[in-house]
Amino acid sequence: MSSLANRCALVSGAGRGLGRAIATSFVEAGATVCVVSRNAAELEDFVATVGGRAVAFPADIRQPDDLDRLRDAVLSEVGVVDILVNNAGNLVKKPVVPLPTDGPVGQPGSGPASVAMTDDEWDSVLDTHVRGSLHLVRSFVPGMLSQGRGRVINIASSSVARSANLTVSYQVAKGALLQLTRSLAKEWAAYGVTVNTIAPGHFRTSMTKALHDSPEGQAWLRERIPMRRTGDAAELGALAVHLAGDLASFITGQTIFVDGGETL
């Protein structure tokens, strides 16, 4: 792996799943890692597991007061964040308008399609993925620009290259991250700050546990993934380490799919 010694990373949504895997890989590569999540217990468990180079910052990135407190606490603790990973996310599996069926429409295990998402549910998804990422960028990228070096990695989804029923709000939010990546990468390229997106395919996380654990879900996954397997979170972490390192300094504005060939 690339060395991230003497670098500080901040990973949102780091208490579990892919965010935790990325944060673990950063620690293993030598970085100091600020882990952010709404769940303080998960963060404390992570810090206890990896040791002294991780610092927990419980916060809800959808809340302006939490964001201000997070920014002040992190900058006071570490000075400058060199690497920002926008990973925090949520998912609502409901249609935009009710569909005239109660039968299966989305992935195995999806709920009834006859109940539409509410405005609050829509806002919750967009606020977490897009608004939260934007505010973290505003909080920590100025320091990167001042020092002439920095990395921003947005975590999207392979679903941006296809479509999936009952996840419109999620796909819209992830699509916005792709355009945010391209726009900010061009705006900051002259200042040594790169911006890239990782678009994972199917990995077993708490969000997708039901799908991965059911025989029906396993069969559905094997059928659609050419490699006939799902991803290992460590594989995603290794890519994040590379993008965060010096050897990736000429890569910016890109979306890299890690999906076993599903979007081919």
TrEMBL record:
Keywords: Oxidoreductase. GO terms for biological process: fatty acid elongation. It comes from Dactylosporangium sucinum. The keyword Oxidoreductase applies. This is 2-deoxy-D-gluconate 3-dehydrogenase. The keyword Transcription does not apply. Belongs to the short-chain dehydrogenases/reductases (SDR) family. It holds the Pfam family adh_short_C2. GO terms for molecular function: oxidoreductase activity, acting on the CH-OH group of donors, NAD or NADP as acceptor. PANTHER family: 3-OXOACYL-[ACYL-CARRIER-PROTEIN] REDUCTASE, CHLOROPLASTIC, SHORT-CHAIN DEHYDROGENASES/REDUCTASES FAMILY MEMBER.
